[in-house]
Amino acid sequence: MAFGLINYPIHQIHQLAKALRDYVGRETPLYHAERLSEYYKSINNGNGPDIYLKREDLNHDGSHKMNNALAQAMIAKRMGCKSMVTATGSKQHDLATTATCAKLALECTVFMANFVLKVMDNEFLSTLLLGYGVLPMRRSACAVTKAVIQEFLETSN
After folding, report:
1. Percentage above 90 pLDDT, the chain
2. Where does the Tryptophan synthase beta chain-like PALP domain start and stop, copy by copy (predicted)?
């Protein structure tokens, strides 16, 4: 629904491309996995694919997640939103979202599954250092979307 409300002036497309290049670290290289390609060719009588790996792990946040987070945050800001809410079970989505919100001066609330909160690693600490609230989800990690909606409704009242 919101997508239909957004027109993309060419300058905003250029802004996104520039942010992806300068802030995320794109374009990431393709890596020819020669030994893997040779393996599949050797078991198929010389026939097989040339396998290339897209090195999204070389992005500044270490994953592909910021590509989407940045575009969505830019759309949200254009629509007049002042804050974003995210949920995570992987601990990379929260870092991408909070870093993007910090760049665009948006507020951000992160809901994390309880089992994720028990593992204090560098990505989790990065989220805290960016100054955003991290709230535990009391519900099952299997129902993350429903849990985020419910937790958001409960904490916003």
Report:
1. 29
2. 25-114
